Structures are given as C-alpha cells and as structure tokens.
Amino acid sequence: MKWLLAVLLVWAAGGPVLGQHRYWDADYDSLARALAQQRTDTARLRTVRHLLDLHPTGARALPLLDQLLALNHREQTINDQPYQRLRAGLQLWQREAHAAALDTLKVAVAEFDAEHRPIPWLLIDMVMLYNQLNRMEARKRYYGQKLAYYRVHNAPENTAACYLSQGAYYRRIGDYNRAINNSLRAADMAQGFSRKLHINELLVTGAIYTDWQNPGRAVHYLNEARALPEFRRVQGTNRVFTFLALSKLYLQQRKYPEALQAVDSALATRVADGVESSMSQAHGLVQKGDVLLRMQQTEPAGRLLQRAQQLNDSLNLHMSDKPGEMELDATWARYYVARRADARAEAHWLVAYHKATAAELEGLQIKYLRELSAFYDARARPVEAQRYAREYIALTDAFNAAQASFHVAQYESERVEQAQGAQINNLRQAQAVQAERLRLGNRMLLGALLAVLLVSGLGAFIYRQLQTNRRTLAKLRHAQSQLVQAEKMAFLGELTAGIAHELQNPLNFMKNFAEVSSDLVEDMHGNNAGRDAGLEGEILIGLKQNLQQISQHGQRASSIIKDMLEHSRSGTSLREPADLNRLAEESLGLAYDGLCANDKTFHATLERELEPKLGLVNLVPQDMGRVLLNLCTNALHAVRQRQRHMSAEEQLLYEPTVTVSTRRPTARAVEIRVRDNGVGMSEAVQAKIFQPFFTTKPAGEGTGLGLSLSHDIVTKGHGGTLTVESREGHGTEFLITLPQ
Prior knowledge:
alpha+beta; 28 helices; single chain; elongated; disordered N terminus; two-stranded antiparallel sheet
C-alpha cells in the first residue's frame, strides 16, 4: 500500500523541477555535510539523490548509491532500477572492465531517460570510458543520437552535455571549427540551468581558440568567463583548466612571466578528489616545465618534469584526459634538445608521436610531425626529415579533405537548421497530442488505482485481523501447553516427594541399627581381646566391615533421596529482583570454603569478572544460589583433580583457577559464566552431563543429580539455558543465560 501511495503522489506532483541554477550549482561538500543532519529517511533520500546528480561517478558515488538503495528499500518512493544499473556499471569501471562498464552505463542512461531524469554529468563522465577504449567513432555516433533524442524531448541539461561531448570530440581530432560551434551551443544551453557549466564551456572555447592559433578570440572568451561574478566560485579541475589555458595562451604570445604566473595559480588550486588532484598536479608541472624551457631555465624544468613523470607513472595517465592533453613526452624532448642530448630527445619525440597516433589525436599528430621534421632537418638528417615532412603533408591534406565536406555557405547551414527545427516542432506537436492522450489515460488509471486502493485497504484490514487472531490462538495454545507441563511436573514432584518420604524412614532405621551394631562389635572386641584369634575373630571382623558398608550405602541412599526432594521443590518459588553479582560471589566463596574444610592442602585462585552496571535481575535467589554453588564446587573439584595427577615439577607451574563472570549482552538477557582450568571433559561425557544420576566422580563422592537439578532450575524454573564447553586437559566453562 505504501508503494501505491508513493506512485500516486509522484504522479500527481509531476516530478521534481531540476532545471534551476540552485540545484545544479549546489556546493557538493556543503550538501554532503547537510546529509548527516537530515532527520528523516525522505529528506536523506532526496539529498543523496541530489549528490549523485552532481557527481554520479566520483569516489563517493558507490557508498552513496548503497545508501540510496537502502533508504528506498524502506521508503519505496522512487524507481531505483536506474540507480542499481548505475551501481553495477561503476563496479565494473572500478575493476577496469571498461567495455562492460560502458554498456551497462548506456543501459542506465536509457532507464533514466524513461524516468525523465536529467543526468548531464553522467553523460559527460562516460566520455572517459570511450577515450580509454579508444572508440572515437562510436562515441561520436552515440552522442549524436542522444543529442537528437534530447532535442526532441526538450531536455536542456542532457542536450548541453551532448554538445559538450561532441565539442571535445572535434577538438580531439583537430576540427576546431565544429569544436567551437558545439562548445558555444553547450555554453548557451547551460546558461539556463548551470552558471558553472556555462563558465566552463566559455573557458573551453577560449582554450580551443588557443589551440587554433587565434589568441585574440581566446583572450575574448577567457576574459568573458573570468568577468562573470560566479567565476570566483569555480574550483577544482575547472579552475586548474582555466589557468592552464591562460598559461598556454601567454606562452604562444611569448609572455613568459605571465605564463609562469598562470601555471603557478593552477598548481596552487586545491582539488578535493585525490586522483584528480594528482592528475592536475601532473599537467601543471608539465606546463610549468615547458614555460621554464622557453625561458632557458633547463635545470629547474628537468626537476619539474621528473616529478610529473613519477605522477604519470603512478596514475597511468592517458594522453587525453582531464584537464587536457598530457604532452609530457614532447616536453621531455624539448628538455633534451636544450641539453643537447639528441638521442634521448629523438626517442621522446617518437614516443610522443606514436602516443598521439594511438589516441587518434590528429591535431597533436600534425604538430609532432612538424616538430620531428624540423628536428631531423636541424641535425642534417635529410632522409628522416623528408619522411616526416611527407607524412605531415599527407596527414594535413587528408585532414583538409575531410573538412572540405563541411565547408558550406552560411545560408545553406541556416536552411538545414531551419529544416531540423521544423522537424523538431512537428515531433513536439505529436508528442503534445500523445501527452494529452496519456493524461486522459492517467485519469482513468487514477480512478482504477483508487478502487484498487480501497479494496487493498479492506483486504489489508482483514489480513491484519486474521494475523492478530492467529497470534492470540498461538499464545493460548502455548499457555495451555505450559499449564499441562506444570501439572505434570507438579504431579511428578508430589510422587517423588511421597516416595522419598516413604523410603526415608526404613533407611534411617537401617543406618541407626548399623551404627549400633558397629558400636557393639567394637565394645565386644575391646573387652574380650583374648578371643580375637581364630574363627570368632574373623567373623567379628567381617561383621564389622559389613556394618560399615551398610552405613556407607545408607548415607548414599539418603543423599539421593535428599536430591530427589530438591527436584520436587525446584521451580516452585516466585522470582524477585536480586543482586546476581553478590549471589555469584557468595556461591564461589562458599564452595571454596567447603572444599578447603575437607582438604587443608588445597589452594586455588578465585577470579571474579562481575559487570558493575548489571543491576537487579529477576530470579529465584535460593534456586539460583544452589545452581551457582553446584557449578563452583564442580569447578574446584576439577582443578584439584588435575593438580593431584601432576608431577611435583608440573604442580609448581600450574595455578588452579576458577573464574565467575557476569554480563548483560542485551537489555533482555543476562549471562553468568563459571570457568576453570581443570581436567576438562570428553565429548562423550559432555553429551550426558545433564542426565539424572550420571556422574564422573568416584563411588561415594557424588549422586549424579547436581547438574541435572541445576539444568532443571535454569531451563524450567527460569526459562533460560545452561550449556557447557570443555576440552580434555584444558578446562571447562558453563554458561547460564537468563531472559529478563
């Protein structure tokens, strides 16, 4: 029912309005801090979704996606299928399965499109995957198709992202004309929803003009971006990009101090993300090294390039990535030219050229072919100089031929745009008609959903009543079972008590007569010492031994009957709040004093680990004291038995120890542990330890009812558990758990 209400509310609200500057220009770090202060799941879900819109593939994206999915699992307010797909794509990206990651993220984009959810930064970040896979034509085709789709469906955020990507593609292949056209279109569209993105594309346009050797237009757009009030809030890689572009522009104009100042500003810019910070540092160091080389400061330039090389090797940077082309090898080549190390300079020029070729950076390919031809010509190597000159001419001709198809008259371009605009308008009209039909259908669906909602509510009420009745019946049956069990136990106790009372009297007579007979024989033996020899003496000695056996076994029978009486009385008292720590400490002391009274040579270490804040515990103090006394006595017997079986040297190293501990693991349970380092028990003994009349003690030292009685008191009298863990030769631990 909750999900159904959520669907109705979202349908009625018509979805969130995202095309606002305050949404897309929100400060990510401030938003992340606000997330921790949100008190409701609904507010947290909205904030997490906003953070993912701003940085869908950043370092914190996966934890945010996990949080969003967990919140929505409870709230059920959005369709989280696109976010699940995004999470799967990012995991593949982290594992460097780039092809699978790209395919998964493309499906996620389609699912976001179906939800009419703008995702401009996801579209922008996916460009890196295309670059890493070197799928330039596939990238151009995909963003061209998405651009047409978003223009028809009036999605300005995603449209601007597609223009941005296409502009970067054309800049990469050296088609500066179309690169600037797409970049300016992206800037104009971004002006309606994100001033930051608008400024970014103005800066990109200035950088493209710098590459196109048009410093006048480059200065125009760079200054236009810097003049906007929002520029002071531009931080991170965008700010680094700005100063690097200015430095390159000043370098072209041979304004070396200004170029150096700009690149220093780039290096001083703080970038929050660790990887992006190192990447920006590498680009800035290469640019500063290039500026210093032009200023003939070779040694400082070499140190900067060495640091840049270390960052490049650790990050495995691509030649084309944020915040621009990484021309590290070309700068090394200029460095070695200045050092007159021609062989190393040649090697770096060739590496730079091959990397640009592999990355399909046609603009850099042409630039490096020109540099290679000049390098070989200056060193009187005409064969190599002519070879690279021919490649330069061939590549330039091919590039110009490819560009020729786009050299059309301005009016013709306008006619094409007008035709495209008319087609888009027709599609939008058809879409409006379809939307009206959908609106009518939604109204009918709303009526049907309300009817379903009423029926579902009635069904839920009936189901809830049925569940309540079932729980009540289960409680009654449980109570009935407890009453029957209590009656059985009461009957068994009465029966045991009756039998015990009946057996007690004859046993008392047996014990008394045996003692009297023993005394008479003793007197007879003492007064008539002369007649002990011979048959009469042997008979009298045997009679005395028999009488002693009668007395001994009579006492054992009496002990058994006493324990049976304890069984009959266990669990009959009422529980009351008691100090369990004091009870445990008293039981341990009584057990130790009792054993020491019989064995003066025995000594053991008593340890108490009692939780100070345990508080009062509901139990039957007399019964629980009996249990603890029995467990402590058994533990002391176990350590004494182990000590007796040791050699004199082993006894010096062995410290008999018994530990009693209490703790409250939860608010509804209390634990008591009795642990010793005695002889321990085998698994076979542990399986029988709680059975009545089972004992491991020698005849005459135990009845086998102590642990059985303790088990009944804990489980039946208190509803708890009594378990044992033991290892032969190492010790034993009993654990009592009492519910509260």
